[in-house]
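Need fresh eyes. Consider my entry:
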Amino acid sequence: MRLPLLALLSKGPAHGYELKQALEKLLGAAYPQPNVGQIYVTLSRLEKAGLIEGEDVTQSSRPNKRIYQLTAAGREAVAAWFDEPTDEPRVRDEFFMKLALAPSSGTADQIALINKQRRHYLNTMRDLSKLAAAEDRDNRVAQLLIEGAMLHLQADLDWLERCQEELE
């Protein structure tokens, strides 16, 4: 949450609720909705780290709000984040660990595990399809997020098929 908030603040000063709304609008319903409390805790930590500065703004009919803006160090952190490639493909996969340990534990059948995981992925794929249909067609970022998740699921389904072929 830290770096996405910093990236949003690159556009200009904002308060926590505006940042929450910006994330929700940008990413759509497919992305887990950020908790406003989590955002404010993160903003406080970013301020303590010197990556942002906050200023209290008085409001006549509402409680004061705190507006945040990036510091030079915050701008450097955002630039470094965009410059770094993302993590490598996942090798530490919890499902694979279950699959590998099932025979030695004697508590689970590998094929039953594969079938259960396949059903879970197919249900998730169905949910994502519904979400894509309901999402605003003009929100290309949200549509791409959903499409990427579905492509990952399809790859996972293909991999499960490969596992089943090897283990039967």
Notes: The longest strand covers residues 52-57.
